[in-house]
Design a protein that fits this description.
Blueprint: H1 3-25, H2 39-45, H3 56-71
Length: 94
């Protein structure tokens, strides 16, 4: 991915996050209203609280594997020597 495209993608993500924060800060309605009519309340009610907690052993194993994989050396790309030598600039001799 090119650098300008990466920069545009980062700006779009930051703009979406800012829009979410502004929308959440101005979220206001009476308690007597139906919460099922409010999209923000529906999204907030679907939290991950009903999921079972991961065991500490599984989490520790995941962290160890992640650390080991991050520390593995990555192979460097092979660059052939002929690409490092510039082409001749002089005109050919007759």
């Amino acid at each position: 991915m090119s650098a300008p495209l990466r920069r545009v993608l980062a700006c779009v993500c930051a703009l979406i996050l800012a829009l979410q924060l502004v929308g959440a800060s101005f979220h206001d309605h009476d308690l007597s209203e139906q919460l099922s009519d409010c999209v923000s309340c529906q999204i907030a009610s679907h939290s991950t609280a009903d999921l079972p907690a991961a065991s500490p052993q599984l989490l520790a194993l995941f962290l160890v594997i992640s650390y080991v994989l991050a520390r593995l050396p990555r192979p460097a790309p092979v660059v052939l020597r002929r690409y490092l030598i510039p082409s001749r600039q002089a005109p050919p001799r007759h």
